[in-house]
Every structure is written in C-alpha cells, then in structure tokens.
C-alpha cells in the first residue's frame, strides 16, 4: 500500500529535486515536500521541491547536475526543457575520503579453474582471434565447426568462440590505433578464461601476426597457434586447417577441474547501459555494495566509461590513494575534452535518447549515478584502455562509454566477469567472461527477465535495501564464477560483442 512517503524519493536533504517512484499527475500533493505536482511527471523523473531561478544550480545527490535555463516552479517537472549544462569548479580534494580497507579473513571462495601458471579462470574456452577484418569469416567458420554436439567429448570446455573485429588494416602501423588493437588482442590471447587461442590473419594486413606476437610478447606453442589465409591457400583450406588446430587443443583444454579458490582472484568489469533515473538509486549502488564486499575479500573491480564519469570525477579523486593516481584520472578527463572538441562533439552528447526518456537530463546527472557502481573503497590505480590490470582493489580503466567497446577493454585487461546495470533493458554478453545484468526497476524486470539476472527494483519498491541486494548479488557473483551460467550465456551472447576501440583515421 502506498503511504504519504511513497510517491517520491529524496536522496539528500540539500537536494533541489526528488525522484518520482511512479507516474505523478497534476494536483498530486507531496506531503513530505509540501508541494503540489504541476503537470505530468513520469516514473524515475525529477520534481522540483522549491522555486529555482534562471541560472541557479540544481542539485541531486547533493551534487550539481545542471543549471536552470528558465524559472522552475515547485512541483514542476525538471528535465530537458528547463535544465542545462554549465561550467563550475570541481573540488578534487585528492585523498580526502581515503580510509583503511577492512579486509575479511578468511576470504570468500568460489570454484575456479587454476591454470598451470597460477592464473584463475571462471570459464574454459578456446578462442579464435582475427588480426584483421579480412580473416573474420574464416575465424567464424572454424568456430561454427564446433557447435552442437561437436564438443560432447569435451564436457569441461565451455565452447569455441570467434572474436572478430572491423579493423587491422588501413591504419598507421606505428599509430595509436594499432597499439590499442594489439594491446586488446594480446590481452585476450593471455586471458585466463581461454585454455587455448588460435590467431588467424589474411597475410598482407597492417596488423601482421609476427608484429602482433612481438609487440605483445606472445609465443606460439601447443595452446597458441597462428596462420594466415594467403599462406594456407584460401577459405576452405584455412577453415579446415583451423579446425584441425583447435581439435589438437581440445584434449588439453578438457583436462581441467574446478577447485576452491579465494575470491581475491575475481576481477569484475563494471558497466551500465540503457540507464534511467533509478540507476543511481538502485542497481548502481547495489552493485557498489557488492564491489565493496569483493574488495574486502581481496578482489578487484574495474570502473570505466570515462564520458560517463564526467562531472563526477571529483568523487573518485577524493578516494585516490595518491596524487599520482588522481592526476592520471584527471589527465584522462582532459584528454576526452580535447578528443571530443577536435571531433566537433561535446561531452554532453551523452546521455543517449533512451537515458533521457528514462529521466536522466545531463551527463553530470548520469555520471553521478554511474560512479556508484564503484562502491566506497579506495581508488588504487588508473589504467589506459586494455592495459593489464595488476593492482587489487578498486581501479579505473579509461574507456569510451559505448558498452561493447568499454567491456572489451576491461576483459583485455583481465576482467573474468562483467557486471552490467540497466534501466531501459539490455541484451549483452561478453565471451570469454560471463556477464551478469542488474535491472534498476521492477517494470523492466517483469518485461525482460529472460535477459536479466537480478531485480534491484525491489529497492524502490521497499522490499529490500541496497545492502541486502548487494549481499545477494555478491553471492550470485561467486556462484557464476563457479560455473553457473548467466542469462546472456544461456542465450548464446558473447561472440559479436567483441569491439576493440578504434582511434584515428581510416587510411
């Protein structure tokens, strides 16, 4: 039953807006706020709690989310028509919120796969990587040969997947795009979730196999094979050769068993896509609560999507363990400002149309909710795209906000699981790392439960707290790491979502 406090959510006493729990119609009285609704307010959208003059800042989470571009009356809908971006100074306050991490002993455990070199996997795939788009069809042809009952004799192998992309040629061999592509492919080739890898090239591309191996210190062996189509003699012969090479790897890949290992071996990539006005209230903070638990158990979580922390970066620098870490994050923010400017864009091109329909007005508002995925522990390191993540704890990786590109960088860095919050709905997976999705609202859960793993809408419904959902999701992370399939895995997602970040001109 609704009570007088059920219509809206107030996130901070100093906020200028509250969030609608449900659709509100004109004349509805918000007793706690002592205002009357004027107009129609969709669920998840903002309501002004007092008069706001033109040019005044508007706060949510006790943080500035924009500035009034026309007078706003109490009870009025606050959105695109009356709220806009504006410049303001951020107080970076480096290290102000750093605090000792209270580690848990003994750490939680999951049933993982321990590789001979000590790396721990959550899945056991064989991967086929293409050096260039020209070898993509052959790579998929090889993987297709192992669908259906072809792996019946190898029950410990989760699958053979082809991860192909749209570049690898028409680019500067010494340029930034090539460096990023090779770093990404190298990270996947070394990924713990791959028991073996086959790299397929065309033969004449800019991204030559030998150059890739040299740049990434990769060496061929029983579980890392390479070949080019031109040397092999064409498509049919290349697919047959690839099938033979994978067939040689399968008996080795099958010789694994799961064993109890510490949760410290988990590396989560944190993502949000199709966000809405509830994202920063339910799924993102619930994921943050699970991240806090993981860090206290010795694990690692990677926050990314730099365009989607823009305007909230000061909340991360306050948690930075050193000025060096904070400066690296600020440096990446400045790089993005310059990058968008030279491409005749702006940082507020994000949020997307779907985000806006869900109640998010500016990138500042979206970012303040997005950083909640990272929990509350110290920021211990900052990485560039697809760099190997070696630190344990809460870290940051610079990536675009586009989810497939961002998650590809995180997996290349070593993420062995992706956790993805969504308010509008998402259909996504990320081989070789399982992907778990969190719904921000119950309406989405009821509509798209077949794609989503947990409903954080219970928080808005009053059925559970952020901490309760965080604990529940932490246990789901451990179960999934132990081999339980996520919804996206059951649907077969993962091969088409490999999208390395492309920078620079196409030649």
What would your notes on this structure say?
It is a single chain. By secondary structure, the protein is of the alpha/beta class. The protein is built from 15 helices and 23 strands. The protein has three domains: 8-84, Archaeosine Trna-guanine Transglycosylase, Chain: A, domain 4 (Roll), CATH 2.30.130.110; 125-254, Rossmann fold (3-Layer(aba) Sandwich), CATH 3.40.50; 261-310 and 344-490. It is globular. The N and C termini lie far apart (62 Å).
Describe the structure using short key phrases:
single chain; 507 residues; alpha/beta; Archaeosine Trna-guanine Transglycosylase, Chain: A, domain 4; Rossmann fold; 3 domains; 7-stranded parallel beta sheet; 4-stranded antiparallel beta sheet; 23 strands; globular; disordered N terminus
Please summarize the sheet with the most strands.
7 strands, parallel
Q: Please give the count of helices.
A: 15
What portion of the residues fall into strands of 2 or more residues?
15-25%
State the helical fraction. 25-40%
Contiguous uncertain segments of 5+ residues: 1-5
Structural class: alpha/beta
Strand order, largest beta sheet? 19-20-18-17-21-22-23
Our count of domains comes out at 3
Mean pLDDT rating: 95
Estimate the global geometry from the Cα principal axes: globular
């Amino acid at each position: 039953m609704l009570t007088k406090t059920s219509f809206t959510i107030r996130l901070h006493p100093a906020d200028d807006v509250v969030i609608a729990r449900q659709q509100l119609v004109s004349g509805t009285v918000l007793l706690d706020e002592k205002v009357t609704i004027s107009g129609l307010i969709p669920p998840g959208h903002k309501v002004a709690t007092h008069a706001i003059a033109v040019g005044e800042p508007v706060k949510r989470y006790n943080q500035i989310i924009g500035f009034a571009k026309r007078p706003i009356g109490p009870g009025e809908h606050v959105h695109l028509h009356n709220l806009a971006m504006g410049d303001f100074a951020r107080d970076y306050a480096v290290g102000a919120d750093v605090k000792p991490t209270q580690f848990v002993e003994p750490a939680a455990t999951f049933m993982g796969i321990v590789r001979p070199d000590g790396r721990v996997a959550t899945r056991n795939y064989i991967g086929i990587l293409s050096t260039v788009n020209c070898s993509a069809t052959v790579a998929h042809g090889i993987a297709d040969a192992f669908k259906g009952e072809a792996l019946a004799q190898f029950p410990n192998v989760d699958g053979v997947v082809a991860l192909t992309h749209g570049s690898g040629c028409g680019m500067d061999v010494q340029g930034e795009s090539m460096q990023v592509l090779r770093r990404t492919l190298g990270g996947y080739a070394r990924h713990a979730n791959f028991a073996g890898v086959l790299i397929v090239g065309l033969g004449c591309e800019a991204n030559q196999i030998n150059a890739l191996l040299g740049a990434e210190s990769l060496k061929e062996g029983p579980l890392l094979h390479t070949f080019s189509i031109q040397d092999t003699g064409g498509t049919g012969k290349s697919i047959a050769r690839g099938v033979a090479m994978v067939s040689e790897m399968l008996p080795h890949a099958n010789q694994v068993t799961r064993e109890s290992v510490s949760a410290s071996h988990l590396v989560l990539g944190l993502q949000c896509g199709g966000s809405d006005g509830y994202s920063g209230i339910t799924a993102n903070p619930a994921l943050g609560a699970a991240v806090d638990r993981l860090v206290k158990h010795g694990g690692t979580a990677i926050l990314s999507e730099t365009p989607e922390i823009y305007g909230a970066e000061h909340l991360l620098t306050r948690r930075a363990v050193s000025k060096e870490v904070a400066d690296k994050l600020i440096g990446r923010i400045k790089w993005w400002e310059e990058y968008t400017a030279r491409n005749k864009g702006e940082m507020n091109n994000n949020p997307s149309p779907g985000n806006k329909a869900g109640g998010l007005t500016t990138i500042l508002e979206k970012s303040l909710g997005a950083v909640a995925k990272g929990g509350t522990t110290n920021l211990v390191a900052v990485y560039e795209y697809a760099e190997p993540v070696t630190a344990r704890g809460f870290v940051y990786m610079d990536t675009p906000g586009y989810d497939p590109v961002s998650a590809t960088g995180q997996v290349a860095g070593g993420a062995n699981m992706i956790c993805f919050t969504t308010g509008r709905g998402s259909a996504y997976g990320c081989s070789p790392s399982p992907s778990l999705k969190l719904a921000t609202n119950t309406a989405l859960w009821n509509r798209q439960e077949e794609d989503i793993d947990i409903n954080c809408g219970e928080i808005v419904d009053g059925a559970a707290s952020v901490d309760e959902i965080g604990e529940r999701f932490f246990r789901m992370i451990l179960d999934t790491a132990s081999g339980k399939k996520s919804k996206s895995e059951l649907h077969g997602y993962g091969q088409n979502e490999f999208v390395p970040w492309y920078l620079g001109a196409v030649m």
